[in-house]
Amino acid sequence: MILRKQVLLALTSNSLLATAADTRSSSDSSRPRGVGPEFAKFYKAPDKPFACISNPSISIPFSHVNDNYCDCPDGSDEPGTSACSYLHHFNPEQPRPGANALTPKNESMALPGFYCKNKGHVPAYIRFENVNDGVCDWDVCCDGGDEWMGVGGVKCEDRCASIGKEWKKSEAKRAEGLGRATKKRRELQFEADRRRKEVGEKIDATEIRIEGLERKVKEAEESLKEVERREKMRAVKSDAGAKGRGKLGVLLSLSRDRVGELRGALTKTRKMRDDMVERVAELEGLLTALKEEYNPNFNDAGVKKAVQGWEDYAARESTDTWTDAEDRDLVEIAKEDNTESGINWSEFEAEEEEPSDAAAIYSLTSYLPPPLQSWLSGSVSSLRQMLIDNGILPDATKSTNVDDSPAVKNARKTKDDAQRDLTNAQNDLKRDREDLEKDYGPGGIFRALKDTCVEKESGEYKYSHCFMSKTTQQPKKGGGQTTMGNFAGFEIEYVDDDLPADGKGLGRGDRVVMKYENGQHCWNGPNRSTRVVLGCSETDEIYKIAESEKCVYRMEVGSPAVCGFENKAEEEGGMKEEGAVKDEL
Ligand code: MAN
């Protein structure tokens, strides 16, 4: 009842009475006035009662459709009048995510609006409150069909031919632009993929390099230790030398002299032995001759005694046999030192103490059970001190400083260089691995635009947006640059904007957002931050900048990188893909 009263009021004010003849538009009898082709199926049987679209349990005689009286709670019985427009509570400030051109502005309404056929141009829905309001809305209804009642004597001629022609021209331009933008997007994607691959290849190469560098560092460390050890021992030796060569040195020298003397004596004795052997052999020969040649008939007692003595001597076998091997040994022993067979004194003099022995003496007590350790430590310390005093052990407490030795310096430099190269390679690897994990937007396409900057002057400032880096503002009059945020990540935002005629805007649909946070602090406010909302465009450009709250900015930016991000029919104008709009031409 309430519905009927309100509509009656409207009718009185309009001084018009809708008749059953108004149910259908004059030019097309296939569906009632204001019904779009998508909803034609609900209005197909004029001989049967009409069931409200969203509330099919409520039905009315078909003659009540478009009778300028609102019967259905969803307004579906008045597709061609404004009778149900009071149901329309559209709040443009709060567009619903996922809404599209066919979504009624109010959930309770079944139809998106009055359908303008716009022959010669593109069909469109106009809001019900604009139907028969006495104003020609050619921008939506170029055929003037929304003012079919002629309220207040208004007559809206059909302008679709000229508007359609202009639109087609701009549409062709737009399509060309879209073609170019799509091509650019493909190029950007190609470049982004190439850069990603490059990072992957770099990671592989760095991993191999790191393996090599790790080996190099290890080798250089070992080499440094070895050189330091050698240099330390050399320092101890020369220290010992400086102190008069120490006991070991003295012992070594004494041994050398003594061995020399013994060798001399041995050689001399051996020669004397050989001479004596020769002389004995000669004497034995003489005596053998005497024994064989003497005349036993001469009773020469002296000769007989000598022969008897010789026979006794020859009968006695010598127990002291001198073997050939022993003789060869004697020859070897008698050879001069520093030859192949003799003692190589110079080798002993040059040879260093094995550090492991020294280390073992230092840590001798650690090999013992704890109770023995303290008992022994005193004795070991004095032994150690004695060895140190004599230069046999390096003084660990004094730490022999070999840092300045050229050999140590060299080895340390090699090690440091290798370590530095390794650290650099490890940092590169870490950075590249993190880079591969990083979000570079849909399809990773913004890898190709990273650090590309676009600028625009607006009001007192020149603004800049550097993709995935930061946003800035700089006073045109001069002064420093202020960071309005550093890149923090991506988001998707539903945008419900009408596109401006030049297409430089966001339009309608889900849009990619780049968030920039933690910019320069704002006096008496937050750290500056910017939301950069992206729309498809042939070139990278800033459309507009707004400071919605103090130091909270919103930039609308066009870029080919987001073209085709959302190719849905509800996208409006701008760079939407071909065929997105149905044309009833
Ligand atoms: C500067 C600019 C402005 C901002 C004020 C806040 O002038 O960053 O955008 O509103 O500081 O003090």
Automatic annotation (TrEMBL):
<dbReference type="InterPro" id="IPR036607">
    <property type="entry name" value="PRKCSH"/>
</dbReference>
<feature type="domain" description="MRH">
    <location>
        <begin position="451"/>
        <end position="565"/>
    </location>
</feature>
<dbReference type="Pfam" id="PF12999">
    <property type="entry name" value="PRKCSH-like"/>
</dbReference>
<keyword id="KW-0732">Signal</keyword>
<dbReference type="InterPro" id="IPR028146">
    <property type="entry name" value="PRKCSH_N"/>
</dbReference>
<keyword id="KW-0175">Coiled coil</keyword>
<feature type="region of interest" description="Disordered">
    <location>
        <begin position="394"/>
        <end position="437"/>
    </location>
</feature>
<feature type="signal peptide">
    <location>
        <begin position="1"/>
        <end position="20"/>
    </location>
</feature>
<dbReference type="InterPro" id="IPR044865">
    <property type="entry name" value="MRH_dom"/>
</dbReference>
<feature type="compositionally biased region" description="Basic and acidic residues">
    <location>
        <begin position="428"/>
        <end position="437"/>
    </location>
</feature>
<keyword id="KW-1015">Disulfide bond</keyword>
<feature type="coiled-coil region">
    <location>
        <begin position="196"/>
        <end position="230"/>
    </location>
</feature>
<keyword id="KW-0256">Endoplasmic reticulum</keyword>
<protein>
    <recommendedName>
        <fullName>Glucosidase 2 subunit beta</fullName>
    </recommendedName>
</protein>
<dbReference type="InterPro" id="IPR039794">
    <property type="entry name" value="Gtb1-like"/>
</dbReference>
<dbReference type="InterPro" id="IPR009011">
    <property type="entry name" value="Man6P_isomerase_rcpt-bd_dom_sf"/>
</dbReference>
<dbReference type="InterPro" id="IPR036055">
    <property type="entry name" value="LDL_receptor-like_sf"/>
</dbReference>
<dbReference type="Pfam" id="PF13015">
    <property type="entry name" value="PRKCSH_1"/>
</dbReference>
